[in-house]
Amino acid sequence: MEEIKERWAEANSVNIAQQLDVATALGLLPDKYKKVLMLRFYQDFTVKQIANVMDCPEGTVKTALHRGLTMLKKDLKGVYADEGQRDFN
Predict the structure, then answer these.
(1) Which of 36, 25, 44, 38 shows the shortest CA–CA distance to 66?
(2) For a surface tag, which of 3, 28, 39, 42 has the fewest beta carbons within 10 Å of its beta carbon?
């Protein structure tokens, strides 16, 4: 039982560290990318909902999502090299 608790604590601390890394990298992005990524991945908004909130075309939202994710991947590359091939859509 003690081993299970230790593994859980280790996994939980890694998850918190990853969340902090992502939050830090997200904070470094330009606002237009940060906003769409926050709405999409933290609030689970659809592209259409984000376009309505931001009063812009859906294509603009898709472009901002793509560029923002590319920047995040670049910033986090090396930190999470094994996880670089995930599909975020």
Answers:
(1) 36
(2) 3
Backbone dihedral region of 29: left (phi > 0), alpha (psi from -120 to 50 degrees) or beta? beta
> HSE on the CB side for 4, CA within 13 Å?
1
Predicted confidence at residue 89, as pLDDT, reads 47
* Amino acid found at 17: A
Q: First-to-last CA distance in the chain?
A: 38
Residue with tokens 């299970």: 4
Q: pLDDT per residue over 6-65, tens digit each?
A: 655 555 565 777 777 788 888 889 999 999 999 999 899 999 999 999 999 999 999 999
Cα-trace Rg, the chain = 16
- For the ranges 27-31, 67-71, 72-76, 84-88, the lowest mean pLDDT is seen at 84-88
